[in-house]
């Protein structure tokens, strides 16, 4: 057994953790500390925020939690939050979250190198040693959007889900739902491994609030998304476990094909009362609750 602190003199939160094939531990989240521990040669060893906002951190420890092998900041001059972390078969590190920074680091040729407004989703790729930013892109529309979970398919494509307040959140032709449904929607987007192309992107939701919180893929490449919905008209499918909204906020679980063109299955899950609080350090935090 092992346990360790990780942080600086201010506030940190770890939101996502994963292991590489050697059992090393990667963790991502947010830090308000200008002295968060970084390592020599890491991609970014300097805190970026200038107004008491947060930076993303990504850190790598050995499996016994005895050594900090690599640690880096990632962010711009405003609030940046890392919420999900995954590794590909080559050991590269992918991070998704949301950013309010107009100067969040992006890379040449990335899908979207310009901030779109309020909060954008970001997806970034670093090498396993956290020394180089290999690819990084914004993803969003003119209002507030956040990426809460990502997963990789067997070809290395990246799927991300979260919430979109932007009616103009980018969708793609032929996707399951290209029209904003109201309130705020869940979204599911697919980018290529180099983060240069948006391969598919869809809204998912009803006329109330809808929030994609977790995503995974099966061995056939189908995409499963879970989250919560306050929509009485959230899309369900015939024969699903529960096709009727139960009250306040329900869990939803939905299955789409890998191309995000078809809703294969979708169900509510819940009772008459649900209290869900997600504490996010953003000036727009209330939007995410």
Overall pLDDT level? 94
Q: Which stretches of 5+ consecutive residues score pLDDT under 50?
A: 277-289
SSE arrangement, N to C: EEEEEEEEEEEEEEEE
Terminal-residue CA separation: 35 Å
Q: Provide the CATH topology.
A: Methylamine Dehydrogenase, Chain H
What is the structural class? mainly beta
Radius of gyration: 18 Å
CATH architecture classification name: 7 Propeller
InterPro entries: 6-blade_b-propeller_TolB-like, Motility_Chemotaxis_Reg, SBBP_repeat
Pfam family, one: SBBP
Protein name: Bulb-type lectin domain-containing protein
Transmembrane segments: 260-280
Description:
The protein is 0% helix and 40% strand. The protein is mostly beta strands and 289 residues long. It has one domain (12-288): Methylamine Dehydrogenase, Chain H. A four-stranded antiparallel sheet has the order 1-2-3-4, with no helix packed on it. The chain has a four-stranded antiparallel sheet with strand order 5-6-7-8, with no helix packed on it. The protein has a four-stranded antiparallel sheet with strand order 9-10-11-12, with no helix packed on it. Strand 13 (210-217) and strand 14 form a beta hairpin. It is globular, with a radius of gyration of 18 Å.
